[in-house]
Write a structure and sequence with these properties.
The structure is a single chain. The protein has 476 residues and is an alpha/beta fold. Among the domains are: 160 residues, Ribonuclease Inhibitor (Leucine-rich repeat, LRR (right-handed beta-alpha superhelix), Alpha-Beta Horseshoe); 70 residues, no CATH class. The protein is 17% helix and 15% strand. The strands form five sheets. A 14-stranded mixed sheet has the order 1-2-3-5-7-10-11-12-13-14-16-18-20-21, with no helix packed on it. Strand 11, helix 2 and strand 12 form a beta-alpha-beta unit. The longest helix is centred in the C-terminal third of the chain and has 39 residues. It starts with a helix and ends with a helix.
Length: 476
Amino acid sequence: MITPSVRAAIVIIFVFIASSFGQGTTPRTCDIAKHDDNNLTLNCSRRNLHLIPQWPVEINQIKKDGHFLITFYNNSITTVSQLPPIPTGRIAISFKRNRIVDIEKDAFQDIAKLVYLDLSKNLISGEVLRSEIFHGAYADNKYNSIALETLNLAHNAIHSLDAYLFQFTPNLTRLYLNNNPIEILDHVTVLALASATNLEVLDLAQTSIESIPMDAFSTLKKLQQLDLSGNKFTAVPESLSLLGRSLEYLTFNNNPVLELNDDSFVGLSSLVELEIAENDYLDEVKRNTFSPLKNLKVLHLCHNRNLRYISHNAFRGLKDKWTLKEVYMDDNNLSELSPDLMPWTKLDALGLTGNSWLCNCELINIVTIQKAGQKFKYGEIPYCTAPLRLSGEYITNITISFCPTLDTSFSSKRRFGITDLKPKHILWSIFGVAIVVCIGMAIGYIVNAMKAIYINKIRNRNEPIRYVNLNTHSLA
């Protein structure tokens, strides 16, 4: 039988254990690993934590230029409270996959060297995100900034951003907003994005937006990478033209765009890599579509299951100064391509698998004569679908002898010169000219005779009618 004193002792022990897990003051709560003098990791992942523990004393050992990673991945934390101070080093903190619904004011005030923050896969709304959660310590009658460079807010419940959200994060270069129900880039959200003038990477994939205001990117002069996949765009946004001098990587997958044309990529002269995949409604790529992309090196035009036609002039403006090295057109609905679509010999890599290729002379020209067959990756050689007798055959196995050619092996005939003339040639020429002249004169005589007869008949028919004045005639 358990006595009251024993029961009390057990209660005290349980309270102590719970308190230890809550405060994290024992090594059992989180594991700390020191990789070297410049790298320290505090692993608090999968510990069923509801509160943020205190830091272990080992964090004071990190050097000024060291790196400190703290991860609370996959716990049950609902509120990010004000974090304990970390005096030095470059700090990275992950709260990925928790249950966060609130972030306290001054949460990161004592971690001025925080450069990476992952808040993805939580329940954070736009109302929770305020500028005061990101400011640094208060000094000289103002709040200082923090060193934040990367902020991951993906997979939350954000509809809009506070206009001053990035007021204290001037170094922010990477922002991930993907998989949030934004739907509309409203005025305050545009102001928030416009204030992050040092952004280099912006992810707006899976946010249900269908348009981008023209002024949304007007101040983002350093933006190099943009992801607009999984949205509701029916055309490439015109506002992207404002990023022409900086944007190098554009991902435009899974949008209900119907066609690409000469207006799609206007101004994007700095683009190096373009990905247009999984656009189920894309049917046609028209002339001059890619002409503005003067520095494009990699093109992914893949997995567009209804894409059946690419104009032979789609790359027209690039052919004189060709920069493309890799082109992937796998898993579309293509059956034919024009041999002059691009200078195939200048490619380093080519993907054409997963299409219904008609193995005609034009395709054989591309693969054999222009050596596109040498650009396929190992194990990724496309095969013929038609004609039936070639169905299932690798297109690299179809030789040029399959196509009809003109025999140019014979020598051309010698030209006919004056020295080759003979008397009979001259006589026959004179006789021919005389016959032609006589026939001409005969025809002329007949025509003139018929004309004279016709004129006489017309004159007789058109003789004027004479009228007689009856009164005058009777008086006479």
